[in-house]
Amino acid sequence: MRFFIFLLFLSSLAFGKYKTLDSALLNGTKQVDVVLYGDYISSNGANGFYTNNLYNSNKLLGNAGFINASIGLGYTTGFYYNIRAAISFRAAQTLLNYNYGSKKDFYGNIENNVVGDSSVALGESFVEYFDGDTAIKAGRFQPINEWINHLIDGIWVRNGSFRNLIIESIWAYKYGRVNYYEMTQFNQLDKTGWFNIGLKYYLSKEQKDIKNTIFINGFSTFIPGVFVTAGARFHWANRFNGGNLWWFGIDVGIAGSFENHKNIHSFRDNTFLFDSKFTIGYKNIDVMVGYLTNGNAGMGSLGVLGVGNGTQVDLSSSFYTNIQPFFVWGGRAIKMGKNAHLIYAASRIGILDNKLNMYFVYGATFFNGTQYYGGNKTGLIQNELNAMLEFGITQTLSSIIHISNTHFGGSNLPNTFEINGGFRFMF
């Protein structure tokens, strides 16, 4: 069976294929959610805005907080022959704002105006083509990719014409976030944009179940005149005796970033990132232990669009594919520290028929500081705890809470405690 029959594929089954435009428009799927959300962060030590990448993304570490209400509206049509479209928006209004700087998590992007503490932004909106072998998506969306945890404005092409092989390419001109916990401006990725070319080859007949499949992939990303990256990954997983009780898996990856040191958006040194993890699961409980290490520029340009799919966004899939285990707002030591070594353990637990999902990770990072985190100090250590609880109160109402804490960082690093969460009503 062709690879995309299960990938996009599920979406073609969900939305159906229609031969009249009215049928495709009327038989789509709406996405509506209303969210009440709050965030509080306290920090001691070196507070301020910290760099996430060299393309204008940063994060405030200090004493701040807010409560806001937001609503998301979206609609995805059915397939009209081989084409469908989607459009969505999110509007947020701050109800309480402690410390002016906390507004940095909620401000309009370049195409929108901001009035006070409110923001309205265009969310996932795209046109998509799918014919069974080839899928092409253009617009604003988040690709399924271990190296991207933002929305992009760009084009994503995938092809599954060859047996067990998927070929993909991505072009991203801008990136940003539009979701319940963060709405940012969309920053331009240089004059030409960010490019990705990748291959994934399955060594097993099973391709749908990440807990029972084997694959290798290779990729290269680049922004002309700024950097070039290249890397490869291997995934092996097996269900014990073919059953649904026990399973175990191994992931190993290596990637390098080669920087044009004269460009202002490049890092001073070339660098690398190596990661490995072992995962074992029993029923609805999965536990993994992992190790990451990087080079003289930390993750360098490998982290331009974020490393990891964002565990707190889609726990059911990203837990198994994340390269680094921390929330998108965490893991600063491994992301921006250099010559770093991270050792961690993580667990995903689902109980009450998966109405209650829990995620825990604890890690220790040993690293040398950079101008972006830790200064010129060497021999730094920072430990981090992340925890998430998501509970489905009803079929339409759910609650979620994230807790993150960094500690043992000494006076050279900000030790932070952050808690955020709220209620989400979907219909």
Q: Any overview of this molecule?
A:
- By secondary structure, the chain is mainly beta.
- The chain is 7% helix and 54% strand.
- The chain contains five helices and 24 strands.
- The protein has helices at residues 4-7, 10-15, 21-26, 315-321, 332-336, and strands at 17-18, 29-44, 48-51, 58-61, 64-76, 79-80, 83-98, 118-122, 125-130, 134-141, 151-159, 165-176, 187-188, 194-202, 214-223, 227-239, 246-259, 271-282, 285-294, 338-351, 356-368, 380-392, 397-407, 415-426.
- The strands form three sheets. The chain has an 18-stranded antiparallel barrel. It has a two-stranded parallel sheet with strand order 1-6.
- A hairpin with a 2-residue loop joins strand 18 and strand 19 (285-294).
- It is globular and about 65 Å long.
